[in-house]
Specification:
Two copies of one chain form a homodimer.
Chain A (H helix, E strand, L loop, with lengths): L5 H10 L6 H12 L7 H11 L5 H13 L4 E2 L9 E2 L6 E5 L5 E4 L7 H8 L2 E12 L1 H5 L3
Parallel strand pairs in A: 3-5
Antiparallel strand pairs in A: 3-4
Helix pairs in contact in A: 2-3, 3-4
Chain A binds a DNA duplex (30 and 30 nucleotides) through helix 4.
DNA sequence: TCTCATATCGGAATCATTCCAGTTTGGAAA
DNA sequence: TTTCCAAACTGGAATGATTCCGATATGAGA
């Protein structure tokens, strides 16, 4: 498990040529302290406010986006466009092209076994969702 | 691969005590004909309009929700609240409780191998996302 | 055919997120 | 230490998907 600490993140800020600001430090604090809750922008906004008096919601959004793009954190909800629907109800991997948005189904021969999850964690799986993001064959060929 | 045909879906409508309406038939047509594109509400709305003159966007949303809840189709973007962020950059399965919304990380011993995906489909994987939806230990204990 | 629970309609409301124009500031260079 | 400017920040407005709501229409059982 690779989890960034507060110091890691500050170091990565510098490596990426990003400025150290009170707002960013407060956001990093909020991210690290609430790591197990997978916090959203609103929670981070509220937590950051407690630490640094002056933080705007716009800044929180811009910062989280910046951090995601710089690889400091991972944004979990990429598809901010609209919900999408699938008539295929079997377990499969969605190959989602980051450039054209095309979604290709990839049926894995040996799916992950929910039974193992239940036995080890006590979590009962009712739906699975597996997504690999990247670039499809067509987009790899096409220039730009 | 289990993909519903048009007839399957109409049959399931009846089984679930849902009425057969021109709007629903048009939406089913749109879903089935565009199955490989994983269409969103807007695309379905436009396609359904071509078939049944009179369809409103509200109806499309309501119908897709109804279909999802009845198990006819699968809604792919569950978390319609806000983006969420994770400081853990390693590949892992997010166990998301459908009742309390808690997200628990489950680190699988042997992760799926992106190389196999590339070789078979030509798709280059840059990010992976694996989610299993269900119920966590705590919620299973708790009544209602 | 009658009846009414269920569907549909469209317009307003909601809510996360982004945009924008103006102001502030971290930190490199002098 | 001071100067300077690209990068950050701010708050309010705009966007866009989705939901809500009150009124109207209709499928299908009696």
């Amino acid at each position: 498990m690779r989890t960034n600490t507060k110091e890691d993140l500050i170091g990565q800020l510098k490596e990426n040529g990003l400025k150290i600001t009170p707002q960013r430090l407060a956001i990093i604090d909020a991210l690290v302290e609430n790591r197990y809750e997978h916090p959203g922008a609103t929670l981070i906004f509220n937590e950051a406010r407690k630490k640094a008096g002056r933080v705007s919601l716009s800044t929180v959004y811009a910062t989280l986006k910046e951090f995601s793009e710089s690889g400091l954190i991972r944004q979990m909800e990429f598809d901010r466009l609209e919900n999408r629907y699938d008539v295929d109800l079997s377990d499969h991997v969605n190959l989602i092209c980051k450039r054209c948005g095309k979604v290709v189904d990839y049926h894995i021969p040996a799916p992950l076994e929910p039974k193992n999850i239940v036995r080890k964690s006590g979590f009962v799986v009712t739906d699975t969702r597996i997504e690999f993001h990247g670039y499809c064959r067509d987009c790899l060929k096409r220039p730009d």
